[in-house]
Amino acid sequence: MAVDSIGTCQVVGCEMTSCLDPLKPVTTRHFLRVCRNTLQVSVDTVLSCNGTAQLTNRSSLQGDNTSLALPLTQWQFFNDADINATPFAILTGNPVNVDLAGHSAVGVLMTTLHIIGSDTCHNDTIFIIHPHQQPTLTIAGQTNIPRDSLTNLTASSTTPGTTFQWSTSSDSVTGGIPTGPQLHVVPYADIATYYVRAISPSGCSTWDSVRLFRYNPRSSEIAAEIFNQVRIDSIACLGNAVHVAIGSDTNNEVVIANRSVTLSHPDTTFLPDGVPCGTQGCSYRSNVTFNQFADGATVQTVNDIKYVRLNMEHSYIGDIYINITCPNGQRASLMNYGGTGTSECTSSILSSDRGWRSGANASTSTFLGNARDGENASSICDGNATGNEPGSGWNYCWSNNTDMGYRYAPGDGIIYRQANVVTLPNGSSVIDSSNVAAHSNFYHPEQSFSSLVGCPLNGDWYIEVQDGWSMDNGYIFDWELSLKASTVDSINIVRTDIMGNQVVRTSDTSYVLSAPPTATGDTTVEYIVLLFDEEGLAADSSVWIHFVAPTYDSEALTACEGTTLWAAGHPYRESAHFIDTTLTSLGCLHITDWDIRINPVYKLYDTAFFCYGKPLTYDDSTYSVPGTYRLDSTTVAGCDSTKFVTLQVQDRILRAAFELSDDGERWSRDTMLAGCRPYQVLLHNISTLATNVEWQTGDGGTPEGDSIVYTYENTGVYQITLVATSPHQCRDTAVAKMAVWVFDQAKATFSWNPATPVLSHPTAELIVDEPVEGQQYMWVIQSSSGSGFDTLYGQQPSYTWANDNTPVEGTFDIVLSTLLLHFGPYGDTLVCNDTSQNSITIVSDWLQFPNVVTPNGDGINDHWEVVNLLECGLYSMNELWIYDRWGHEVYHAKNIDKKEDFWYPDDDNCPDGTYYFRFSAKSLWGLIKRNGVIEVVR
């Protein structure tokens, strides 16, 4: 957007709003002035909705010399459009990008464009930028649509005032112009993608899309079990492609499995206890109804009945009889009655369904599930009665199926065999349950399901449980029947597709899948396999491929000369570095960085020196006799080596010595030096055979050098130590235990009170700033005559300047001399002294009040002022009033401390004539008041 600082308004030297469209997010205020060369200011402003603005200055010179270079462009950015605030960013250049993140909440952002030039107008153009955020966007609606059916897609946003625009990849859009939050769609293609753009009131926008599938409702009902699995390698190597063929029953192919139909009946019911209870008497009977099969479809083989499952518990397995009955009345016994007694219900169990097979059978008192043994004899038909509470139900599955991979229980798969009995922690014997998910520990029915061949698939299938003996009970919690779909309506797959990242179709049923090209590490990618029949989408399934990145490791091998190292199947007798690549068990790349180090074996020679009179420690051994020694088993880089060392005695003796002086003339080795602090001492090294010396001054100092000047700042007695080192690192030490004695220094700095004595009171109290105990004081003071001197003693004397009792005025010198006496180390007297000099000024405190003022502008007597008021500085608390001849106040000032505070008649438009003043002031010596007359004459 181009912004013209003059625009069409052509206003110079004014402030105005922008000539732009007021709906745009930029407003300008302009400050222009006429000059020799002016700037035609033009700025491109591009505001992206993620919080970043780009500003481009396209200004040009207008005037006498337009060949001048465009001046420097400087941008300043402020929060809250407050130009008086501190800018949060200052940028120079053209164009510039400014990050507005974190500033959107303030409403507006003030941006100042400052153009600086030598022969042009300095021009500041202010832009108010309204930062905006992208609107939120959510799409809702059904994505699987029956053919020729209408569906609605709805877009929504939490950003107020957002509008929406729709577009599509292929299908028609109904309902007029595709705007507004809702889109009405009739999908005519198998797959179509619909896009929606959310646009905020500021013009910021967000895109999103949704994919619709047209599907065949009848096929989709079947699709839930048609898609048994998609056989695609779940792990592949990064960089390798996975080839997929969708067909039938080969490696890496989609397998269309036989469909099964399963119905269950959740029916927690108390099993009656061997006597007629309720309408069903001794039986529990429940049904499921199938209608999914083709008309006239029947059970063709025992494999068409996948399994019958009961979740139940019952105490005493021998008391109950279980069968299943198909819609035409054909029946198969799941478990025969095993009891030997009779009861009211025994007669209703067919004689052919009584008694167990011979063999290693369990006891008839074995439980099914975690049952509660014992019942309420007085309420045998009431499952809610105390004593009849349910236990925990276990799953038991019966089947003769041979093609589902079921694993049947021990003991020929018969449920009541002893091999199927487990013992609970409470000691109960229980028939082991079936694992439905794992298809294990299934049981064969007592009567083969071949007796159900010819049964209609559609209709009511009944399960019946009958208790033939009293004194025990149980519960049925739920049951289900699963039938194969070998006779269910089939669908014809006419097209396939795979959706996902990096999918390449090589034929109608073949694809190549790859990891994203940006992947550098292990990456898992989702792919969706789609099957279509004549009516649309029939089935879809998600598969994931884990692309394994190359793996890396490093190997380091070390050996000594004469050794052979084997690495990556090759021998090495010298050091080497190489990269070896192998394949993992998955066939993926594994990279090994090999570092082979063959270290040499050395013979080493060394020389060491004895310090005179001291044994030598070398390689953790101590030697006292010179000579050549062989040291074995010294390892270098892990390899055994031999070292030969020659031990020698230094041929000269190292001796540490030094001398001291405080004047550079008298040197001493054993005499204590004494002085006042700060005390300078000269240290001089006179050691023999020393190549390096280390000083220790006793006060923490460690100066370096053979001859040095060292200053002691604090009082005390100090020991000096010198450590001398020879070329072979032998060491010797010289010590002077009481070498330096430093005494306290006298101090002569002083001040006085008051700081400025005055004529009316020319007296000053002299004050020592840093008094020292035992110090003597002598003051020499220039007298009032200016030529003579007076002498005073003491720490804080007072002195008055006078000449024949006449006050004096001027500047006078004062000298303070101090003296400290100390007893030296040898009984002598040590004098420490100090002197300081300063000057004191006595000023006049006599105030004078002129009676004439001439405010004619010549700079002389233009102000009426109180003479000496400012010079002496004694009357800081003061007040002045000026009145005309009629008593009207024309001027008033308080606490005057500069010349401009006095009365200037021209400031108050006062004509010539007579005026009156009133003045009061307070000082250390009391309150003064003055009244008088002032004549104003021009």
Descriptive report:
The protein has 938 residues and is mostly beta strands. 1% of the residues lie in helices and 47% in strands. A 5-stranded antiparallel sheet has the order 2-11-10-7-8, with no helix packed on it. A 5-stranded mixed sheet has the order 66-70-69-67-68, with no helix packed on it. Mean pLDDT is 78; it is low at 1-37, 104-110, 115-122, 170-176, 224-230 and 248-259.
Radius of gyration: 57 Å
- Count of individual beta strands: 70
State the helicity in percent bands.
under 10%
Q: Sheet with the most strands?
A: 5 strands, antiparallel
Unreliable sequence segments:
1-37, 104-110, 115-122, 170-176, 224-230, 248-259
Number of helices: 2
* N-C termini distance: 66 Å
Tell me the overall shape.
elongated
Oligomer: single chain
* Strand residues, percent: over 45%
Strand order across the largest sheet: 2-11-10-7-8
Structural class: mainly beta
- Mean pLDDT, rounded to whole units? 78
Layout: helices, strands, pairs:
Elements: E1 2-4, E2 26-31, E3 37-40, E4 42-48, E5 52-57, E6 60-63, E7 72-79, E8 89-92, E9 96-99, E10 109-116, E11 123-129, E12 138-140, E13 144-146, E14 151-156, E15 163-168, E16 173-174, E17 182-185, E18 191-199, E19 205-215, H1 217-226, E20 227-230, E21 235-237, E22 242-245, E23 254-256, E24 260-271, E25 283-290, E26 305-314, E27 320-325, E28 331-335, E29 367-368, E30 394-398, E31 407-408, E32 421-423, E33 429-431, E34 440-442, E35 459-467, E36 474-484, E37 495-500, E38 503-505, E39 510-513, E40 523-533, E41 536-548, E42 551-560, E43 565-567, E44 570-572, E45 576-583, E46 589-599, E47 603-610, E48 616-618, E49 621-623, E50 627-636, E51 639-649, E52 658-661, E53 673-676, E54 679-685, E55 692-696, E56 707-712, E57 716-725, E58 731-743, E59 750-753, E60 763-768, E61 776-782, E62 789-793, E63 798-800, E64 810-823, E65 829-842, E66 852-853, H2 869-872, E67 877-884, E68 889-894, E69 913-923, E70 926-936
Parallel strand pairs: 13-19, 21-41, 29-33, 31-34, 42-46, 47-51, 53-58, 66-70
Antiparallel strand pairs: 1-4, 2-11, 3-6, 4-5, 5-9, 7-8, 7-10, 10-11, 12-14, 14-17, 15-18, 16-17, 18-19, 20-23, 22-39, 24-36, 25-35, 26-30, 26-36, 27-28, 27-35, 32-33, 37-40, 38-39, 40-41, 43-44, 45-46, 48-49, 50-51, 52-54, 54-56, 55-57, 57-58, 59-60, 60-63, 61-62, 61-64, 64-65, 67-68, 67-69, ...
